[in-house]
Amino acid sequence: MGLQLERDFLNEMTWMALVFHLSRKVTSLVPESCLLILLGLVLGGIVLAVAKKAEYQLEPGTFFLFLLPPIVLDSGYFMPSRLFFDNLGAILTYAVVGTLWNAFTTGAALWGLQQAGLVAPRVQAGLLDFLLFGSLISAVDPVAVLAVFEEVHVNETLFIIVFGESLLNDAVTVVLYKVCNSFVEMGSANVQATDYLKGVASLFVVSLGGAAVGLVFAFLLALTTRFTKRVRIIEPLLVFLLAYAAYLTAEMASLSAILAVTMCGLGCKKYVEANISHKSRTTVKYTMKTLASCAETVIFMLLGISAVDSSKWAWDSGLVLGTLIFILFFRALGVVLQTWVLNQFRLIPLDKIDQVVMSYGGLRGAVAFALVILLDRTKVPAKDYFVATTIVVVFFTVIVQGLTIKPLVKWLKVKRSEHHKPTLNQELHEHTFDHILAAVEDVVGHHGYHYWRDRWEQFDKKYLSQLLMRRSAYRIRDQIWDVYYRLNIRDAISFVDQGGHVLSSTGLTLPSMPSRNSVAETSVTNLLRESGSGACLDLQVIDTVRSGRDREDAVMHHLLCGGLYKPRRRYKASCSRHFISDDAQERQDKEVFQQNMKRRLESFKSTKHNICFTKSKPRPRKTGRRKDGVANAEATNGKPRDLGFQDTAAVILTVESEEEEEESDSSETEKEDDEGIIFVARATSEVLQEGKVSGSLEVCPSPRIIPPSPTCAEKELPWKSGQGDLAVYVSSETTKIVPVDMQTGWNQSMSSLESLASPPCNQAPTLTCLPPHPRGAEEPQAPLYPPSDPRPSFAFPPSLAKAGRSHSESSADLPQQQELQPLMGHKNHTHLSPGTANSHWCIQFNRGSRL
Amino acid sequence: MGSRSSHAAVIPDVDSIRRETGFSQASLIRLHHRFRALDRNKKGYLSRIDLQQIGALAVNPLGDRIIESFFPNGSQQVDFPGFVRVLAHFRPVEDEDTDLDPKKPEPLNSRRNKLHYAFQLYDLDRDGKISRHEMLQVLRLMVGVQVTEEQLENIADRTVQEADEDGDGAVSFLEFTKSLEKMDVEQKMSIRILK
């Protein structure tokens, strides 16, 4: 089979899948997996008609080596771990006991059916053959379950139980399959008692061994990423390579490879996410999702195509019908029995409706198909019948059950997953509850789940995290802190989303506060939240994930990167994984806008609520500046050299660029190799305010008011157009704050600054930039003021406050902080004393902004 | 049940305790056993020291506060009914608990009481409100050293603001309840073995 041909074919299929994505109406009713299978059938039919023989098959080798691993890795990596471990008992029971039960009962019942003469005699199979068939047909398939359940949105507990079962039962399936297969090959007469024992033992070896392999690789992976600070580019590669290595290793050792990858993803995520850079996280996330959904698409298509090949299968109605009925019946029976037992131990019992969904959600899929194809026809004479039956079962479960499960869930009123935003209170109290429960278990003297979880967390904190996390990352990992950080970012973004109407103080309700969430909760925040939590249950649909439990620390970063860089308006809730990113340029534009607004919000809040942002603050200035410095093509490369004229630099403050955002936490920032923004201050006089403020001033309003031509404003600004105002600062050495990042314009004019040296100019900006000032100046200048101006002027206090804050945070006792504080305190008075130059400045500014 | 009831006879007032706490006989026996094990020198009551002996409590950030909750109003000792009464907050909510007639007092394991237990761990001065200062203290216990004091203060501010609806700068019990209304408190504040 030509490789080239195959590649073309895959391309075509991917393209077809895209078409499906576009027709939302169809897919809202019919799960994608069904459509893909049907499409595969059609395509296979065409190929068969043209080529007279079936060209493409779902090859077991391809399936197990290339198609399955990405899906499993994705689901393991983004598994909501807390939820998973909370329900581990139930998951394991269903996975182990349930699968064994299904395999044996189905196999035995089919054999009984044959004995009863309901299966045609040409199906030559004994008890062992039927058990073999039962073992491969009994396992719930992770791919199918994911594909169907992600569109159903049942509550998380139910989902995690079904999905966890489908992942973990792989070990059981593999063992059963191999044991039965070897028994069949040996011939039933030669099987001895010790062989059964070996079979049981191998169950433990395969499952525990697979999990161990996964954990070892998770450890290696976490450890490796700790040392990739200088080679960020290989981080995503490492994640994929080592996870795949885990899969291959387990496969080679005949251990459960699915379990290995699941455990690897589950185990490494926390540490890896903390270690790798922000961009790598994004890359890992989207690459993983993309690979997984590609693989899934291909699997379902190939399933459809393979089914056409009639040379491989032989039909027997009795066998097919019997199998269908038995797997449904025994699945239901098994679920009911196990649930009854489990409910004796569960805090929240699984009710009847849950059981119905669990029974009905037992979908079979490509794993079963691949396994049945792997059978040896010489040893298993009934292989063709089994193949046909498997195809029917897979098609039935994926298509019929997949189609009906959604209405069923609706009709039964199954508790849906509800997504609520995490609030600080919830996060904090949840931690409190955990601690309380652990303590109460101590008091009661019962070492239960909470006790062990508490123990594990302590161990993790003491040793594992220390060992596996980069020091800087470890320091800022705290869930409460993370939630706080995320909330701030979200508020900021929804503030931006409100656009202009935020001037009044009522506009500043914090949207994350549960009680007043209605207004501000507009599309972006919703999207943000949802896409940010892509962590969770769903394999593919990045932005329709519903999970309230994904507050694991690493998710914050998804939210962050997903959020800050996402173009807002392009996103509709109905979009699917295929709309991941937009044009980079567009994104940048939006980013500038968002970040500017965000900065204002932050600082507005920090003045109002005394909240400050340590991490995100310095960045916007830089990017914003870069953006609107487009016309001043002077670029930023002159930056570091600005240091040169700072003979007595009192403060050097380095702010990492955005890609190091996790490192840029407050004063303990670990200096990375990225370009830094350097603020240099020689704080001697209050004029130092000027440079800072003017810088932020010009960044702040320009992209907002006059987005198309921000530089007009700059040209009008005195320190730009006047060409000489700055000379004062340089030559007379009064001001030494040079926020270098903002000073592309500065650099530009540095050469020609020398002419103007008027002291009023020094003073003027100091005063004018103070927050209420422009408004005060508005009265004398009233006619000049365009109506849109109050907003930009409104934004000044924030930038001021923030500038002050940033310094105070980064180095505790900066001289200018003391100077800043009184100024901030008195800002209400300052506008009462406008100097002459002050008005001059104002005029210019107004003109600029009006332009 | 013969041996059990003879066991239960050791517990004074077993019936009234059962009625009050809703614990099953078996749970009460187990708890009584534990109570006597904790009571090192057979005083018949527990002192703070007895509880502080429990190793794992020492590393629990809220350990001291939880111990304190066993000793209401500054008393120095807790007897078995008092001990069980505190633990009864963590009994899982069962179906029969929900349809109690309104005349009876609210069971100790109701959502409200569970929340109230948590609330009073925050509210150290017992003024019915979690002040910013109290929130900060809890945060300091809960959040690792890696977050600076200033950041902690910001978080505390934000947390209080988030829950504070009447703008008094503190979280009342009502506001506390509201901030958690979406959370499955019944589940998160229950321990299965305490049926």
TrEMBL record, chain B:
Indicate the principal place this protein occupies in or around the cell.
membrane
Q: InterPro entries, from UniProt?
A: Calcineurin_B_homologous (IPR051875), EF-hand-dom_pair (IPR011992), EF_Hand_1_Ca_BS (IPR018247), EF_hand_dom (IPR002048)
SMART domains, per database record:
EFh
GO terms of molecular function: calcium ion binding
Query: One GO biological process from the UniProt record?
Result: cellular response to calcium ion
GO CC terms: cytosol; nucleolus; nucleoplasm; plasma membrane
List localization entries.
Cell membrane; Cytoplasm; Nucleus
List all membrane-crossing ranges: none
Cross-referenced Gene3D superfamilies: EF-hand (1.10.238.10)
Keyword terms of this UniProt record: Calcium, Cell membrane, Cytoplasm, Lipoprotein, Membrane, Metal-binding, Myristate, Nucleus, Phosphoprotein, Protein transport, Repeat, Transport
Q: EF-hand domain spans which residues?
A: 26-61, 110-145, 151-186
- Pfam families documented for this protein: EF-hand_5 (PF13202), EF-hand_7 (PF13499)
Report the PANTHER family cross-referenced here: EG:114D9.1 PROTEIN-RELATED
Query: Could you say which protein family the record assigns here?
Result: Belongs to the calcineurin regulatory subunit family. CHP subfamily.
Q: What is the name of this protein?
A: Calcineurin like EF-hand protein 2
Give the organism the record lists. Callithrix jacchus
